[in-house]
Amino acid sequence: MILVLVGVSLIVFAIMMLIPEGQRVAIYVTGEKIRNEQIDSLIVKYGLRDPAPVQYFRWIKNIFKGDFGHSITASAPVIEGFKMYFPVTLELVLYSTPLIILVGIWLGTIGAVHKDKPIDHFTRIFAIVGYSLPTFWLGLMLMMFFYGLLGIFPPGTISIVGKDILYNPEYHQYTRILTIDAILNGNWRMFWDAIYHLTLPTINLVLLSSALIMRLMRSSMIDALGQDYIRTAMAKGADKKTIYNTHARRNALIPVITISGLMFAGLMGGMVITETIFARKGIGLWMARAATQLDVAAIMFNVLFLGVVFVVINLIVDLIYAWVDPRIRLT
Amino acid sequence: MEKLVEAEELRTNFYTFEGVVKALNGVSLVVNNGETYGLVGESGCGKSVSVRSMMRIVQAPGKIEEGKVVLFFNEKDRNKGIDILKRSEAYMQSIRGNDISMIFQEAGTALNPVLSIGFQVGESFLLHRRGEMIKLAVKTLDKKIDENSNSLFRMWRKFHKRLLQNETDDLERYKTEIVKIDSDLYRTEGKTDSKSLEKHKRLLVNRERLNKQGLKVRLQLKTPIIRRYVRRINAAVREKVIELLTDLGVPNPGNIVDRYPHELSGGMQQRIVISIALACNPTLLIADEPTSNLDVTIQAQILDLIRQLKKTQISSVLFITHDLGVVAEICDRVTVMYAGDTCETASVKDLFKEPMHPYTKGLLKSVPKGEIGEKLQTIPGTVPNLITPPSGCRFHPRCPDVMEICKSQKPEMLMMKDGHSVACHLYRKK
Lengths: 331, 430
Ligand SMILES: Nc1ncnc2c1ncn2[C@@H]1O[C@H](COP(=O)(O)OP(=O)(O)O)[C@@H](O)[C@H]1O
Ligand code: SF4
Ligand SMILES: [Mg+2]
Prior knowledge:
The complex is a heterodimer of chains A (331) and B (430).
Chain A: H1 2-17, H2 21-28, H3 39-45, H4 52-64, E1 70-71, E2 76-77, H5 78-113, H6 118-132, H7 135-149, H8 160-167, H9 178-185, H10 188-225, H11 228-236, H12 240-277, H13 283-292, H14 296-324
Antiparallel strand pairs in A: 1-2
Chain B: E1 3-15, E2 20-22, E3 27-32, E4 36-40, H1 47-55, E5 62-71, E6 82-83, H2 89-95, E7 100-103, H3 107-110, H4 117-128, H5 130-146, H6 151-188, H7 194-209, H8 215-222, H9 230-247, H10 253-256, H11 266-278, E8 284-288, H12 296-312, E9 316-321, H13 324-330, E10 333-338, E11 341-347, H14 348-353, H15 358-365, E12 413-417, E13 420-423
Parallel strand pairs in B: 4-9, 4-10, 7-8, 8-9
Antiparallel strand pairs in B: 1-2, 1-3, 1-5, 5-6, 10-11, 11-13, 12-13
Helix pairs in contact in B: 4-9, 4-11, 5-6, 5-9, 6-7
The structure holds adenosine-5'-diphosphate, iron/sulfur cluster and magnesium ion.
Iron/sulfur cluster is lined by residues 357-358, 393, 395-396, 399, 401-403, 406, 411, 424-426 of chain B.
């Protein structure tokens, strides 16, 4: 675990070293705008011409101090930018991930149980559509249809009225996650406003990402239903429901769990596009902007951040995996 | 001898991508009350598919096309029997594991890798003996209520007793309803006038739809916190499982119940599979090559166990094997199968003494007799592909006595003498 994190940091650092010194300065300077004539002195000041290992340790030291440099696109120190953008992304993840998993597993099970029946074909079409449509296209279509044509589900994170509430001194922003704050403040108007804006991006992500889980769940459920232990359960006199829910599903979930860790990578990619299209000011949008405006500090920070998230997610997946499959339980 | 189960002209196909595998080509066999009946044949000849068809547990892409499986279990249907292929799935579920059980060739894959041994064995009790288990749970609960304890605990326990009582009542309701439907089914069975047929069909549907659990019970089983009373039933089941495993000679059963299949040895896994099958004292035990994948010593132990159980618990055993030695050792009567056909049925003594079917003869010649330097004969040719099986007698391409008629006509089962029948054109009356 620690080793993986060190590896991640090394890779990120290696990428960083490829950036010209003049731009790399941004990673070390926090809290001020850099003027052109300062650059040379700053390069010397922060030792950007020192040997790589020295620079690496200096960089790590900065990280532990929470010092990630200055982001042009956020017009603030990177860490402040993160505090602003991250809750928006987290909120979307919070709503879409459970839905992706539930919808995927549910549809996959239905498909497997009714194999080759109409409902199975229907779910398969759903999967193929979800799997092959480009994220941006589906996003644009959803937006065009619902917002453009019907005038509902606008882009953005919140309405103008919502913004007023947000900056009202009475209203406390505990977590900066809109819906949770709304509940904590007991402000239902705000809650529905946030949900209203969340609907389309969530649908977009769920449609695209659950397709993979669904396909996998379907095939692994079909596989499980053909196993010998299912025959044992049948010979015992177990009914269909018990066989599906107790005997087959748990086994079928094992490969799905492995994949859902990987699916997260796809979700991140989808996030950049989804947030850009629906104008949600989250990490994805920030990264997209940072990339086009060469906001080196923000890019490096986010790469590092995603690396860490990945490692953590995989750890969680491993834990769930061990919980479901007794064969790999540690003794 | 009384018949116990009779399979008539079973035909089962597998609809695979390569084509239709005609796995059973009219298999007929009769298991009598109280006997150990053997089913032998090379692997791939359809032994497993036969017994799975008899229990209606052929998995996709298999389908039982035609035939009958008649049970003569209850006094009521001694003369007529019940054709279980015509019965509802719900009826089958009440029979499987309760009246007929099965043990499998590969114990390792027959057990569910993600469920504990205790759960897998206990499930048999929960499926067929829930009423008894609840009674046991109530008994322990009563003892606890009598202990003087804190009144809050008392209330909680009384409440649980109430919930258990609900389940008992519900089981009672289910039982009376099902008995009523079954007797109606029995009355309309076999009648051909359109009104009875209509009613029969409706009854089958009703039986299928009949809820095993009423609304109240389902609610109390699903509601969090309230459903905690189920733990008391599970504790009772656990006791029963440990008792059963002890009876079957499983060492240290208290520990084994919490284990998972991969933690046990092959012989122990097979004992677990046997205990699942025996939990509800079945009338017929079907053993599908239960010893084929085990070491010789373990094999002997398992055979001993089955023989022992035959004496004490189960009335009849249908034993599948490809090993004629095992047949000689434990069976009373035996049927030889070849490529989805039944070739010959006889008592073990007759079969070894005077085999009639050319395939049986070949099979017996290929068994070592234990002489040193002895040369074994094999049957020339290979087992046929069942997607395009040979016409007529399926054995004709390999038969030393093949005649013209064998290529076009399937031989019928001929009764040669008492209890010895053979399906071969050689024995046709001229
Ligand atoms: N799931 C299946 N799909 C296709 N064919 C099958 C399947 N199960 C069994 N068969 C076919 O049925 C025939 C009999 O198989 P089986 O009853 O398992 O033989 P055995 O006598 O060794 O138990 C075999 O030839 C096999 O090809
Ligand atoms: S019917 Fe003909 S081919 Fe078949 S076993 Fe008898 S003699 Fe041989
Ligand atoms: Mg077999």
